[in-house]
Amino acid sequence: MTKDKESTDRLSTLEMRANDAKIVRKIVLIILSSFTLIFVIGIISGYFYVKSAIEPVDPGSKEKIEVEIPMGSSTSEIASILEDNGIIKNSKVFRFYIKFKNHSDFQAGEYTLTPSLSLADIVKELQSGKVMEEPIYRITIPEGKTIEQIADILANKLSFTQESFLKTVNDDEFINELMNHYPDLLTDEVLNEELYMPLEGYLFAGTYDIYEEEPSVKAVIDMMVQRTDQIIKSKKGEVEESGLTVHEILTLASVIERESKFSKDRPKVAQVYFNRIENNMKLQSDITAFYGLKNLKHKAVVTYDDIEVKTPYNTYVVDGLPIGPIDSPSEESIDGVLNPEGKDFTKLYYFSRPNGETFYSDTLDEHNQIKEEYRHEWYELENEKSES
After folding, report:
1. What is the mean pLDDT of the chain?
2. What is the distance between the alpha carbons of residues 260 and 357, in angstroms, rounded to a whole number?
3. What Cα–Cα distance (Å) separates residue 226 from each residue in 63, 173, 185, 330?
4. What is the pLDDT of residue 186?
5. pLDDT value for 133
6. Tell me: the pLDDT tens digits for 37-55?
7. pLDDT, tens digit, for every residue of 283-314?
8. Closest CA to 95 of 72, 64, 117, 73
9. CA-CA distance, 106 to 148, in Å (whole number)?
10. Fewest CB within a 10 Å sphere: which of 167, 253, 320, 342?
11. What pLDDT, on a 0 to 100 scale, did the predictor assign at position 132?
């Protein structure tokens, strides 16, 4: 009985080992199959990732982007420049592409490229040394100009009239198109019916190169709005931290643009306005009263009659900010709003001389004393304007 039992036990052990071996083989097979599947999926995913990365960013785009390749730039630096400007999708893939294609001899210079170019076309452009084409027009819009003033500047340079520009820039359908194109910049705030010009403050003041003989009004407006959108997007973190809407930022920046002449004063003037809002005081900006009067040409001295006119822009009448921007502010003024002097700067009043020198006060009495001392300079300037 003992031998039979030993035989049975030995047989049972062999069967168990055989079963264990089968289980081990199954587990190994499953693991290998999983690894193989992951490997295959990785290859397929990698293929489509690279395939996508070497395709044009936007095949249908006609946008012209100026890209500068500095002297001595490495391929890594060139790839980063192209990616940052939206010409390629992925700098690493571009570097591998030019390495495998054995491309080199890229030329430094300024290029006009578009997001519709393939990697092969981009390489060809950079190797040819074909630099940026000369613009047909180069137009500078000074900071602090209103839309009407901008229309006049453009009409004197380009093929359209001031009237056609103003008609287009105030066209509801076109404004809605721009809102859809720049949703982070243009919100429902620009649809307020009390605004004199819905896009006031959104046409960035700067220098523009135009490469068409007869650009359309829409194309020019879009170009200027796009520049504002780029500026605001570059300051996304600061915009979010400010607690203000983009419309409010541009509105206050447009006031600061006209109320302060020097860079050092813009953060201080911004802080004065924030302090006044904090203390439930009206902003009392002369330039907002002038803008609200519409047809009145800019004067050097505001009168009591001027500040009593009720308009949605007159900050002697309305609480807080005016209903919208009153001109096209500079990036410096936008920065002043986003980075004001700070709460330690507790001044509530300021007065600027015609030469730009600005004095800050804590009390109304101190402010009035400064006004008495220098106000005659503004009257003299007013007389000079009247005589001319």
Report:
1. 85
2. 9
3. 11, 18, 9, 15
4. 96
5. 63
6. 777 666 665 555 555 666 8
7. 999 999 999 988 555 566 677 788 888 999 99
8. 73
9. 45
10. 342
11. 53
- Inter-residue contact 221 to 199 (CB < 8 Å): yes
First to last CA, the chain: 133
Please count the CA atoms within 13 angstroms of the CA of 10 that sit on its side-chain side. 6
Q: Answer yes or no: pTM beyond 0.90.
A: no
Structure token pair of residue 155? 């009409």
Placement of tokens 């990785």 in the chain: 42
- Residue 310's φ and ψ, nearest 5 degrees, are -85, 110
CATH 3.30.1490.480 residue ranges of the chain are 65-128
DSSP at 197: S
SS (H, E, C) 336-365: HHHCCCCCCCCCCEEEECCCCCEEEECCHH
Of 14, 89, 26, nearest to 59 by C-alpha is 89
The yes-or-no verdict on residue 257 having pLDDT over 90 is yes
Burial per residue of 330-340, b for 16 or more beta-carbon CB atoms within 10 angstroms, e otherwise: bbbbbbbbbbb
Please enumerate in sequence order all residues whose Cβ is within 8 A of that of 95, keeping only pairs 6 or more positions apart, or say none: 75, 76, 79
b or e along 117-143 (b: 16 or more beta carbons within 10 Å of the residue's beta carbon)? bebeebbebbeeeeebeeeebebebeb
- Per the structure block, which two tokens stand in for 127? 């190797």
**C-alpha to C-alpha distances, 324 to 74, 202, 282, nearest whole angstrom:** 46, 10, 16
Q: Which CATH fold topology does 65-128 show?
A: Dna Ligase; domain 1 (3.30.1490)
The total of other beta-carbon atoms located within 10 Å of residue 256's CB is 29
